[in-house]
User: Fold this.
Amino acid sequence: MTTYTPESKQFFTALQDGKLIGSACIDCGHVMIPQRVICTRCHSDNTEIVEFAGEGVLSAFTIINVPPTAMAEAGFSTKNPYCSGIVTLTEGPRISGQILNVDVANPQTIKIGSMVKMTTVEREHNGEKKIFLAFEVV
Amino acid sequence: MTKKTKRGVAVVGAGMSKFGAFPDKTSRDLFVEAYQEMKSTVDKGLDPAQIEAFFMGNFSADQFEKQAHLAPIIASWVGLAGIPALRLEDACASGSVALRQASLAIASGLYDVVLVGGVEKMTDLPIGEVTDALASAADTQFEIPAGFTFPGFYAAMATAYLDEYDASPQAFAHVSIKNHKNGALNEKAQFNQTIADIMESKKQRAAAKGYPVPTWNNELEFFADPAGNPNIAWPMTLFDCSPVSDGAAAVLLVAEELAYQFTDTPIYIIGSGQASDGALTERDTLSGIPSAAKAARQAYDMAGLTSDDIDLAEVHDCFTIAEIMASEDLGFFPRGEGWKAAMAGMTARDGVHPINTSGGLKAKGHPVGASGIAQVIEVWKQLRGVAGERQIAGNPRIALTHNVGGTGQTCVVHIFERRD
Assistant:
């Protein structure tokens, strides 16, 4: 397995490889995403990079009808809205991502607590294609 | 341990510009208006030469007006070049952060008389760029790439809240309708119109243009109709969101022992709290704002008071869900009860816990850096009994302000008292 380091941009390097990484505190066991050097619970800097399974549940979401410019460039608009959400990973911590495989025209059908699985989406920004974290409802 | 400052601080003057969209004005023009009004409210007069320092809240003139290093410019425009002039930035909480740092500077003994202001000029940019500028108050590396906007973050908190407490989304409409009712009585408000007024003017416009006239029978029906009130970030609609605004606000802080040189009715700052937090995803809860509860605890402890002692509060209703969460974070209602209290009218001007008598950010407007100071202006008026038509009854003596930065990465709470 590729070895990742705690610098924040490494999160996206890992994402390119299809991996979701974070940190675990060796002293207190606290698990964090994205990865970082210093434990947010016990202040220890004795932490290590961990890889998440990429599974969890949907804990909060919204249908974005008025997108920011980056999402507008990617083709989203009031007529073509998308879902963004917060996922609680099976390992404990939470992370944000675009939520796929949901009926954005009928937000009432989207249920908090739904099982989700990690995936990625490619979006063009400033003429450059980039990979972003996403989750699909399974 | 309860922390107390060693020297008291009082507000002895308060003024603001009108909030709204002013294409012909810049930050400095708006601040001059606020400063002039503030000066006119100092009962026994203010000699500007007495002002020793200027603390200013401003979120992002860099992005909105392409102007950084704004504090010395504003100081010069009000004739105060020479004194220390600082800009403080903690997103939408910038104004309250400036107030807190200014009061701490007086409490330290360094200064006796300090000007505190807030300003934001947001309407020059197209709406997409305003959305982007506001989004920079969140974590642009790990939250924004998910597609979130600020309405989106609060909308996500709304879904968590609705799910956790099996709450009715109609509660959001009640917050907006109430705040517009209050804003209609505030001549400084961006929207000094009730939702009913807005509905009526939409009907008249449709009729004048020969379009089918909408059939809304009441404000709740209007609120629920996406044709009149479109979704911005479901479940947050247009009328759940505070507007994009221009505006400025200013207050004069002085050391407690000097207050009577300026007025016979000083308003004392008796509690102050501030807390920070990580990104929305890093918190134990999504249905409340932990930094608000922490800041409130510090402020209540410093003042030796509880939530029951607060006669009125100005809270950070950047979105309607935010007011409901604030009413719980501040302890006015138990967790999961804030939405019911909003629907039952308990936060109206004549309710048990009046909230946002000024119209709040929703109706008064939300020029980001000015909002925290404008909250102080409302409680200053209410506590002095000069809030006009929107004055609450019962001779209020204790008031609270609650100002959130971002989704709660910062929260500042202050408690004010009239003593006479």
Notes: Residues 10-16 of chain A form the longest helix (7 residues). DSSP finds two helices and eight strands in chain A.
